[in-house]
Write a structure and sequence with these properties.
This protein is an alpha+beta fold. It has a single domain, classed as Nuclear Transport Factor 2, Chain: A (Roll). The chain has a 6-stranded mixed sheet with strand order 2-1-6-5-4-3. Strand 4 and strand 5 form a beta hairpin.
């Protein structure tokens, strides 16, 4: 189950880069929600897919991806996402930590929610773990 969702999420990333709106529209739940790393919430799948249609992903890489299943119908992914993209006249770039939730509905996996957080620098992370030097 976890491997199936990991593969779906990999394909989702490829679909973002290809601007495969039909694939994304099918995968994303109608009530999909996204708390962005910039502090606002996106609750319109249609508006997000419109943004994707006009975006250009130069870099999209996933690292440290972990999947955990809960029951037979929910998988939670955690990962680091490195991205460089342009859309709606803005450039978006950096490293982010994400939590993504997939739920099986009527025998099919749906992407229902995600939350992103801007990564701290490696030095800040070390200070947090070990205290200031």
């Amino acid at each position: 189950m976890e491997q199936e969702v990991l593969e779906l999420d990999r394909q989702r990333g490829e679909a973002l880069q290809r601007k495969d709106i039909a694939y994304l529209d099918d995968l994303y739940a109608e009530d999909w929600s996204y708390i962005t790393p910039f502090g606002f919430m996106v609750t319109s799948k249609k508006a997000y897919l419109e943004w994707v249609k006009n975006a250009a992903y130069e870099t999209l890489r996933y690292d440290d991806v972990k999947a955990r299943a809960y029951g037979n119908d929910t998988v939670v992914l955690t990962l680091k996402n490195t991205v460089e993209a342009k859309g709606a006249g803005e450039s978006i770039g950096g490293a982010y930590l994400y939590t993504r939730v997939y739920v099986k509905e009527n025998g099919r996996w749906k992407f229902v929610a995600q939350q992103g957080t801007l990564c701290q620098s490696a030095k800040k992370q070390e200070v947090q773990r070990n205290g200031p030097s």
